[in-house]
Design goal:
- The mean pLDDT is about 95.
- A hairpin with a 4-residue loop joins strand 4 (about 60-70) and strand 5.
- The chain has a single domain, classed as START domain (Alpha-D-Glucose-1,6-Bisphosphate, Chain A, domain 4, 2-Layer Sandwich), CATH 3.30.530.
- About 30% of the residues lie in helices and about 45% in strands.
- About 20% of the residues are buried.
- It has about 150 residues and is an alpha+beta fold.
- The chain is built from four helices and seven strands; from the N terminus they run βααββββββαα.
- Strands 1-7-6-5-4-3-2 form a seven-stranded antiparallel sheet.
Length: about 150
């Protein structure tokens, strides 16, 4: 097992139709407004930006996110990630009653040196940190969508 590789999946039940959720998710520069762990997003061009995140544990992760698939009709938004972590992330949206079920899948290898050194003893804490970040994101996006 490579202790520096992580696969995550999160499911968010959101109170808006898929098209509305998709519009919010494709505007990454707005994430810090509703997702407190996304500290900063700097657009580099129409498909690429630098993102800095920090959850409960005292470390930042900075990475470049480059859009590789944007398909609003299919409800898919996929990104290639490089920097403190290398890999990919994908949002897949589906109708769920009057709202949306948003599925977030991520497969990454941590590249940040300190986190690589702590991979074995701290893996449970890193996974919990990610779960807390994703839970906060779901709550923040739900509030944001209700206010729109």
């Amino acid at each position: 097992m490579d202790w520096n590789r992580y696969r995550f999946r999160s499911l968010w039940a959101l109170p808006a139709p898929p098209a509305t959720v998709y519009e919010a998710l494709e505007r990454a520069e707005d994430y810090p407004r509703w997702w407190r762990q996304v500290r900063e997003v700097t657009r580099l061009d129409d498909t690429t930006g630098v993102v800095r995140v920090r959850s409960v544990l005292p470390y930042d992760m900075t990475f470049t996110a480059r859009e590789v698939r944007r398909d609003p009709g299919a409800g898919v938004l996929e990104l290639a990630l490089s920097g403190d972590m290398e890999g990919w992330a994908r949002w897949t949206l589906a109708p769920d009653g009057t709202g949306t079920l948003a599925r977030y899948d991520q497969f990454v290898e941590v590249r940040k040196p300190l986190l690589r050194r702590l991979a074995v003893p701290c893996r449970p804490a890193f996974r919990a940190n990610h779960r807390l970040m994703m839970s906060a994101g779901a709550r923040g996006l739900a509030r944001h969508l209700e206010a729109v």
